[in-house]
Amino acid sequence: CAFQNVQIVYCAVPTSLDPGAGFFPTEMDNSPDMLYQIDLQGGSKSLVAIPEGNPNMQSLSISKDGRFLFYFNSFDEKLYRLQLR
Questions:
Q1: How many CB atoms neighbour CB 85 within 10 A?
Q2: pLDDT tens by residue, 35-58
Q3: Phi/psi of residue 46, nearest 5 degrees
Q4: pLDDT-derived band of residue 25, with 50, 70 and 90 as boundaries?
Q5: Do the Cβ atoms of 2 and 12 come closer than 8 Å?
Q6: Which residues pair with 29 in a beta bridge?
Q7: Are the CB atoms for 61 and 70 separated by under 8 Å?
Q8: C-beta of residue 12 within 8 angstroms of C-beta of residue 35
């Protein structure tokens, strides 16, 4: 997850998990992710993106102006930029 501010956070959420994956954290890294925006004050959540190429999103960070989210794709070991607005 990456905080945009004290109210908004963006989180990569696995598209699926095998049964028991939570017991072994290394097994959670094998699934592609979707990106959600969570409003911590209002409690709402919304799907922001299902990135092309089905990446496994790691090390999320947001640009200072809040326009872009950067992430490392552990499948191909490259850095990506996703436009937020």
A1: 7
A2: 999 999 999 999 999 999 999 999
A3: -145, 145
A4: low
A5: no
A6: none
A7: yes
A8: yes
| Structure token pair of residue 42 | 């209002």
Three-state SS string across the chain, please?
CEECCCCEEEEEEECCCCCCHHHCHHHHHHCCEEEEEEECCCCCEEEEECCCCCCCEEEEEECCCCCEEEEEECCCCEEEEEECC
| d(C-alpha 58, C-alpha 11), whole Å | 10
Query: Could you tell me the two tokens for 51?
Result: 């990135």
CA quadruple 59, 10, 84, 74: dihedral sign: positive
- Quote the pTM value: 0.87
**Cα–Cα separations (whole angstroms), residue 40 to 13, 34, 46, 49, 85:** 16, 19, 12, 19, 19
* Residue 72 token pair: 């490392």
